Structures are given as C-alpha cells and as structure tokens.
Amino acid sequence: MSAPRETDVFPFPGSSYRGPDPRYAELRDEEPVVRVRTAGGVDAWLVTRYEHVRELSADPRLSRARACGPGAPRVGGTMHTTPEMIISLDSPEHSRLRKLVAGAFTLRRVERMRAGVQQVADELLDAMQAQGGPVDLVQALAVPLPLTVIGELLGVPPADLRDFEKWARAFATVDDRAGGEESLAGLAKLSEYIVGLVADKRATPTDDMLSELIAARDEGDRLSEAELVTFGFTLIGAGFDTTANQLANSVLALLVDHRDQWDRLAADPALIPKGVDELLRHVNLFATDTTGFPRIAAADIEVGGVTIAEGDAVLLALASANRDPAVFADPDRLDLDRERNPHISFGHGVHHCLGKHLGRMELEIALEGLLRRFPDLRLAVPEHELPWHTGEINHTLTSLPVTWGEPE
To answer: Which regions span the lipid bilayer (predicted)?
Structure first.
C-alpha cells in the first residue's frame, strides 16, 4: 500500500466554485489513483481521471453501505449520512427503494411539470422586477424556486418550507465540524417533522408523492416508517439545495468571469439548454470536489495501475473528471458550443441523481427568465464582499446581491 504524500491532504485548499484545485491536473497526469490523508485523519484513495471515476461509480465492489455503517472510517470534509438513507445503501436494498420514486422523475413526467415550474419562476421574477434592484438573488430566486417545486411535489405545506431549508442546510454541514453535531441536529429536526407529516398524510392522503410512498407496496410489503421518514427528508434536501447552489454559482460565474457568454445567451436563448449543461460541467458545485460521499472497497479492485484493497476508503473526484482533457477539449474553458459533453455532475451508476431532469429544467427556466428580463444584470457589491457559507458539502453563497438598469 502506498503511503500518502504529505502535500496531498484532502480536501485540497485551492478549489472554489470556479474549479478544482490545480493539483488535480497534476494528479491526472502523474498519479490518477493516489493515496491521500484526509482532514479526518483517515487515509483514502483519491480518483481523478474521468475514465476511472466513471468506471468506479458503477462498480458494485465500492460500497456506500460500508462507508456509513458502524465503525466506518470518518473521512473529513464529507457529509454525515445515516445507514437507512437511499444514498447510503447498496443493491438490492438501494434498487428496491429507488424504483418506488424513479417514475416521478422520468423525463416525460418532469416535462409535464414544466408549466408549473414556469409559473413559480415567473411569480418570483415578477416580485424581483416589482421590487427593483438591488435584490438578493439567493433568497429571491435560487432557493425559493426549487424549494417550492419539490415542496409541491412531495406535499409539504408552503409555510413549512423555510424551516426545511434551515434544517437541510444544517444537515449538509460536513462531519468534521464539531464532531458532526450541527449535521445531526439538522437531521433530527428533519426526521421529527417528517414523522408528523407522514402521520397527517396517512390519515388524510393527498395527491402528492409522499402520499404515494405511504401507500406504496413492494412485493406486498408496505414501506417501513423509518424508510418513509428517511425518504421524505432525503428527497426534499436533495431536491432543492444542489439546484439552488448551482443556479447561484452559475449566475455568478457568468456575471464575473464570462460576461461575454451571459450576453451571448441573452441574445440567443436557444443556446440556454446547452449552456446549462456546460455550466453543470464547468462550475464546481461540490466544496470537496467529490460528491461528498466516500465509498469503501468491499473487495480488492485494480484500477489505474494500483490495487485498492478491501476496506480502503475511496473518493471519486467529479470536478476533476469534468476537467479531464482526455474527454473534454480545452476543459478549463466555458464553451457554449461544446458538442460532446458527457459530464458526470449528476454522478454515474446506481447512485446517479434521480432529479437530474428536474434540476436541469429548473436551471433552464430560471436562467431564461433572468436573461430575458434582466439582460444587464450585474453584481451589486464587489465580488470579494460576497458571503459564502463555509463548512457545507457544496460551495454555497449566503447571498448574491444583484441589480440592473441605469447605475445610480
């Protein structure tokens, strides 16, 4: 087993929403599967090339369940999860639960939601326009759009959504801060709320996904109470936070570093779908450059010329994979004309993001509305004054003040 290099302490400090730390490029060239010491003090294998990340994402010998079970190594810079969460399960348990909700997130089903998502976005943009600048884009659009949509899908009363946002953000705190206490506190609040909501919907079912899950049977067995509760907060948390952060970070990237591309999208809205996909590849969402969810090898695995031994922790660097020049020409450039864009920002394999079609649609609708109504949108404060929420799994802006029209 190779020893970690002292310089390879993970997470690397040079990463931001703009992209991964420059040393990933060195590792892709020199040591694409490398042993690193993590912030939690545990050694892990860091995988940086696209071909290896994609291959291992679909390898059943890499176990999420073993990474979440009792006695699992605590890899610093990663999010606390519980063993019963769908993102913590291996097949067949994972497949059983996933198929219960997969039908709600197919491309066809999501497209039927487009008019409703457009209405939510239009109402939020109307309010922005009526208020006038400056406006905090995080609170005016980036958070409420996906939060409202996922709340309606699951049947969460609108008045409760902001509490959900607060608890989900606490839950997304990485586990090396105060022993995971903040994350566990958020998890407890989410669980307590869903227990009550499940009880209400069991007594009075409504036309929403949570009610469908309550009634769901798999080979004649009703979902357990724990599975229902876990499903509820997992879908709500995953259904808004990543989209909200991706939207805010994408707008920031366009306004600050790629103004010419913002202007081009405003002039040619037909480019927006391709532009969203390129922003998903180019903008680095994950603060640790990985999904934030380590895996444990359940058997010896040969990859990239090294042997990952059974029991070893493995980190798959999605941000590095998305900048791999073997797959993406001129990978560090935001290219709206990129024809081949097989990015893996939504993951790959059994744990690929269920909500990728919904998230992509929300991003397209939100960007189209902003570009159409506010083509001269700009930051209302200097970039260095923008506040970032530290310690989360994602690069998260606390606020994004923007304005438009003639300068005062």
So the answer is: none
pLDDT in tens, the chain (408 residues): 455 565 567 888 888 999 999 999 999 999 999 999 887 778 899 999 999 999 999 999 998 878 776 666 666 555 555 666 666 676 777 777 777 777 777 888 889 889 999 999 999 999 999 999 899 999 999 999 998 998 888 888 888 888 877 777 776 665 544 445 767 777 788 788 888 888 888 888 888 888 877 776 555 566 677 777 777 767 776 778 889 999 999 999 999 999 999 999 999 999 999 999 999 999 998 877 766 678 899 999 999 999 999 999 999 999 999 999 999 999 999 999 998 999 999 988 777 788 889 999 999 999 999 999 999 999 999 999 999 987 667 788 999 999 998 776
Alpha helices by DSSP H, listed for 1-113, are 23-30, 50-57, 65-68, 93-102, 107-111
Q: What is the C-alpha to C-alpha distance for residues 303 and 122, in angstroms, rounded to an integer?
A: 48
Which amino acid makes up residue 165? E
| pTM of this prediction exceeds 0.85 | yes
Gap between the Cα atoms of 247 and 397, Å rounded: 10
SS3 305: coil
Q: Provide the pairing of β-strand 306-308 with 313-316.
A: unpaired
Centroid of chain to Cα 102: 18
Which of 367-403 are b and which e, b meaning 16 or more Cβ less than 10 Å from the residue's Cβ?
bbbbbeebeebbbbeeeeebeebebbbbbbbebbbbb
Residues 289, 389, 149, 247, CA torsion sign: negative
Residues with Cβ within 8 Å of 119's Cβ and at least 6 positions away in sequence, in order, are: none
Alpha carbon 115 to chain centroid, angstroms = 24
Pull the structure tokens for residue 404: 């438009």
What gap in Å lies between CA 135 and CA 159, rounded to an integer? 22
Q: Are 402 and 137 in contact (CB under 8 A)?
A: yes
Count how many Cα atoms sit within 13 Å of the Cα of residue 42 in the half-sphere of its side chain. 22
Q: Which domains does the chain have, with CATH numbers?
A: 9-403 (1.10.630.10)
Q: Give, as one character, the DSSP assignment of residue 105.
A: G
Q: Quote the tokens at residue 20.
A: 């991964």
Amino acid at 356: K
Choose among 100, 52, 58: nearest CA to 327. 52
